[in-house]
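Record 1 of the preview.
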Amino acid sequence: MPFKFVHTADLHLDSPLRSLALRSRDLAELIGDATRQALVAIIDLCIDEQVDALIIAGDLYDGDQTSMKTARFLANQMQRLHDAGIATFVIRGNHDALSRITQELILPPSVTVFGGRSHAVDLVRGDLALAFHGLSFAKPQAPESLLEKYHRPTPDAVNIGIMHTSLAGAPGHDLYAPCRAADLHSWGFDYWALGHVHVRAQHPGDRMVIMPGMPQGRDINEGGEKTVTLVTINDDRSLIVEERPTSTAQFERIQVDLSSAETWLDAAEFIEQGIGVARDRTRSAHLVGRLRLTGATPLSWQLRHDRDLLLAETEQRAEGLGKTWVEKIEIATTANESMPVGSVTADPIMELGELMRSDIIQQHGVREVMRDLVKELRDDLPPEARGFSGSDEAAFEALIDQLLAEGSEDMLARLKPETSGIS
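->
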């Protein structure tokens, strides 16, 4: 008889809102409750699929939380699994090590929370013998590999290891319990249930090594559909791995080209079309979009002058699509040149714009000031929020280019006389 389990990690229950762009009270409530709804979806999946176990590979919580409401909610969900005869295996991650409620929480007897010393829990289902190996974070930092602390595989059993690790490193994540995927493959476990990195990855090799990603994104940098991993172990010990969606709200970046827009109505309709395409592709119940408007259009100044009106119009159209929200609008359009730059009749603001693009923002001193400002901001943020600056030097320089270009366009829009009205 096959053995089935669900593997997840990084729930970050009741994580505080991370986006200042969530101005809407309804949207803020939706995102604020989304991590709980993701756990409910996971428990529903476990019960519907009649799995034998749930594995949570760390970071149930989001740091030094003291709310017993979070604890009661988690305990209630674990009780649902207990009532369904489903075992739960939990390790504490770096965020859980900070949480005071981790030690105080009373969970059903079907829940195993691994401690700071590795041990294995043996199960038998029919002809299948299984061993679950786990080790929790005792402290928020783990600068060295934990692999050698794990027991070797239990003979004649399907061995499942549960570890919270950054592996060799990932953008936006500090190193925690670093190790190589190759070392995990060679350890001899049949399946490694990992956690910590918020993006799903399956690391190829002799064994199954899976980072499931998080089941619910919390801001635009955790965009895309979020899932858990459903694993079936057959009687011959072969493994079948499937992804199942869990996110209630899905963050997506939506790019809209306004090159063909000549009127405000044109722009609004192009934007609605772009959001509609993204809505059709979204399997999660709610879509939270960050729009980026691009292209050369005579509306470029007007879009910048009337940002609030643009946002209100866009939010209204998104609402009409159903369960669709606009988190932010980035305006990266440029103005069409009405006269050749340098001619007697050329627009002086257009001339200034050309000077800024071709000379001023390319100067080393200007770029260096911008680099310093961005680095100062980045260094003041927690590690998980630093991904906006890119994962390498090329991405960082691209961000500097973007900030300087968009800042220049915004400044020029302020100099441009206001339009006579919306058409």
